[in-house]
């Protein structure tokens, strides 16, 4: 072990709720080199530790102020780092690591400043989800809709009927003519006016031909 008192200071920063490890080590050459040490709150005094929180004889922990203060390192290799479990803001402050080395003023002394900060809180809402779509430069995205209209079909029953046999009597022919004049062809409202005009002309021509045939046959 090196002779002469060794004093140094380190800063350790952690967050609330985390396990914070405050480092401290000493050299171990053989089993006889193992020695006692202590951790305390506040700066190291001339001897021992003030407000002692944990002690070890070099082999095991002999005194422990709280289960939140633990020595998780390999003691037999000189790793006496202090672990603060589930750190709190009240754990902030100065910690003293004193390794007792035989002889006058030979102790290894390290003062650590521990800063425990509040956990960082994300400003994004945990219930907000954003979906974003991107397109290449100059490209545009368009939506097109095709509207298909189906026109109703004209059934054969709606078409004008013609006499299948010659008129046997002039009065019959007149009745046929009157019936043909009273009959109308219903056109779908959705059709264009030109289509209705063509159908009307065709119907008139059919009526005239029917009248001529009826007169000729009579």
From TrEMBL:
<dbReference type="GO" id="GO:0060097">
    <property type="term" value="P:cytoskeletal rearrangement involved in phagocytosis, engulfment"/>
</dbReference>
<feature type="domain" description="Ig-like">
    <location>
        <begin position="1"/>
        <end position="122"/>
    </location>
</feature>
<keyword id="KW-1015">Disulfide bond</keyword>
<dbReference type="Pfam" id="PF07686">
    <property type="entry name" value="V-set"/>
</dbReference>
<keyword id="KW-1133">Transmembrane helix</keyword>
<protein>
    <submittedName>
        <fullName>HAVR1 protein</fullName>
    </submittedName>
</protein>
<dbReference type="InterPro" id="IPR007110">
    <property type="entry name" value="Ig-like_dom"/>
</dbReference>
<keyword id="KW-0325">Glycoprotein</keyword>
<feature type="transmembrane region" description="Helical">
    <location>
        <begin position="196"/>
        <end position="217"/>
    </location>
</feature>
<dbReference type="InterPro" id="IPR003599">
    <property type="entry name" value="Ig_sub"/>
</dbReference>
<feature type="region of interest" description="Disordered">
    <location>
        <begin position="125"/>
        <end position="144"/>
    </location>
</feature>
<dbReference type="GO" id="GO:0016020">
    <property type="term" value="C:membrane"/>
</dbReference>
<dbReference type="InterPro" id="IPR013106">
    <property type="entry name" value="Ig_V-set"/>
</dbReference>
<keyword id="KW-0393">Immunoglobulin domain</keyword>
<dbReference type="GO" id="GO:0043277">
    <property type="term" value="P:apoptotic cell clearance"/>
</dbReference>
<keyword id="KW-0812">Transmembrane</keyword>
<keyword id="KW-0472">Membrane</keyword>
<dbReference type="InterPro" id="IPR036179">
    <property type="entry name" value="Ig-like_dom_sf"/>
</dbReference>
<dbReference type="InterPro" id="IPR013783">
    <property type="entry name" value="Ig-like_fold"/>
</dbReference>
<dbReference type="GO" id="GO:0001786">
    <property type="term" value="F:phosphatidylserine binding"/>
</dbReference>
<keyword id="KW-0732">Signal</keyword>
<comment type="similarity">
    <text>Belongs to the immunoglobulin superfamily. TIM family.</text>
</comment>
């Amino acid at each position: 072990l090196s002779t002469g008192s060794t004093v140094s200071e380190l800063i350790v920063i952690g967050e609330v709720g985390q396990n914070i490890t405050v480092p401290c080590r000493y050299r171990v050459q053989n089993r006889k080199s193992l020695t006692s040490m202590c951790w305390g709150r506040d700066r190291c005094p001339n001897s021992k530790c003030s407000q002692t929180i944990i002690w070890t004889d070099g082999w095991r922990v002999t005194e422990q102020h709280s289960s939140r203060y633990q020595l998780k390192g390999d003691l037999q290799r000189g790793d006496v780092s202090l672990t603060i479990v589930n750190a709190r803001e009240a754990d902030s402050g100065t910690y003293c690591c004193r390794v007792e080395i035989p002889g006058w003023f030979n102790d290894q002394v390290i003062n650590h400043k521990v800063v425990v900060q509040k956990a960082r809180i994300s400003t994004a809402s945990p219930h907000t989800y954003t979906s974003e779509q991107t397109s290449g430069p100059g490209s545009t995205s368009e939506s097109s809709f095709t509207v298909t209209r189906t026109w109703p079909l004209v059934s054969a029953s709606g078409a004008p009927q013609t006499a299948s046999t010659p008129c046997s009597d002039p009065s019959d022919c007149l009745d046929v003519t009157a019936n043909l004049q009273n009959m109308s062809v219903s056109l779908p409202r959705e059709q264009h006016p030109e289509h209705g005009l063509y159908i009307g002309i065709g119907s008139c021509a059919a009526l005239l031909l029917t009248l001529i045939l009826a007169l000729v046959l009579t």
